[in-house]
Amino acid sequence: MISSILFVAMTLISKNVLYDLVAAVGFPIAFYYAMTGFECVWWYRKRLFDDVRTFFGAGVLPLLGALILSELFIQAFWHYLKPVNSYTSFAGIGGTWYTGVGSLVLGAVLMLLWRVIRPAYFRGEVLNKDTPVIVFDEPVPPGAIVTGTTGPAGIVGSPPRRNGV
Predict the structure, then answer these.
(1) Where are the chain's structural domains?
(2) Is a pLDDT exceeding 70 seen at residue 161?
(3) Of the four, 44, 74, 142, 158, which is 20 to 30 A from 30 by CA?
């Protein structure tokens, strides 16, 4: 629903802005997937040489993907900085660059703000090993009525959910 409203709003403002927004989606995708690849290698660094499967599956392939996506991010950063490579521009900089890099900067600012407002999350106090798991051990048949505190979030009669879906 929200995406439909944004689509109509951006189309009414200018189709060129919409094109820049679509092109800018690659910035956060490349950034976050690259960070995930580097994090994978870092997380499994002590077990990378346990066996060949771990070496390639948790080391070589994630690192290769992270390096490729980092390079694509850097290329896109410089490519979309030039106004000729975007549908819109402002002050000699392409609109795709503004929306792509701007979304990452806005995300960082909001994260830092949230760190001040809710520091418990960043200290690991919200979800930790002592947090109770509210997931069924076995599949619940479709249409079953869950009662008591065994249902998701303890809601009586709520339809069962599995893994938050």
Answers:
(1) 2-122
(2) no
(3) 44
